[in-house]
Design a protein that fits this description.
By secondary structure, the protein is mainly beta. The chain has one domain: Alpha-Beta Complex (Nucleoside Triphosphate Pyrophosphohydrolase), CATH 3.90.79. It is 14% helix and 44% strand. Strands 1, 2, 3, 4, 5, 6, 7, 8, 9 and 10 form a ten-stranded mixed sheet that branches. A hairpin with a 2-residue loop joins strand 6 and strand 7. It is globular, with a radius of gyration of 15 Å.
Length: 145
């Protein structure tokens, strides 16, 4: 069972996402809309964050993770008054490089082309471009007051 629940009229989701490097850039998942996002999913009850990200990488792209580093926590508040979401994402850098065929539903984007795509949350682009390896805590608040 995933860690996702309603508290009042707000949906709370706990997620893990992985920054997956390729030989030419980074791997993203395509959305049903016109944007892309980093690979990941919800944390399951009784599963550690590291177990979750390793499971997600195997499920999504068939990649066994050797080593990973927690590099950021992103709090993303989005949605409308009728459908608000408070999402907490633990962002990991995956140390091994993805070398297989790009699976259907995924997209490889070079560092030079990151700004040409609608990547969500947008703060991920900042993390990818940042050469500073210090831990980042990012809040993205798109709720309208």
């Amino acid at each position: 069972m995933d860690i996702s629940t309603f508290i009042g009229d707000v949906k709370l989701k706990i997620r893990v996402v992985g920054i997956v490097r390729t030989s030419r850039g980074f791997l993203f998942e395509k959305s049903d809309g016109d944007y892309i996002f980093v690979i990941g999913g919800k944390v399951s009850i009784s599963e550690t964050l590291e177990e979750s990200i390793k499971r997600e990488m195997m499920e999504e792209i068939g990649m066994r993770v050797n080593k990973l580093t927690l590099c950021s926590v992103v709090e993303n508040l989005y949605g409308t008054d009728q459908n608000k979401v408070h999402e907490i994402s633990f962002v990991y850098k995956i140390d091994n490089v993805f070398t297989g065929d790009i699976p259907e539903g995924f997209l490889e984007v070079s560092m030079e082309n990151l700004d040409k795509f609608d990547i969500r949350p947008g703060s991920i682009v900042e993390l990818l471009k940042n050469k500073d390896d210090s831990f980042k805590y990012i809040i993205v608040n798109e709720w309208k007051d």
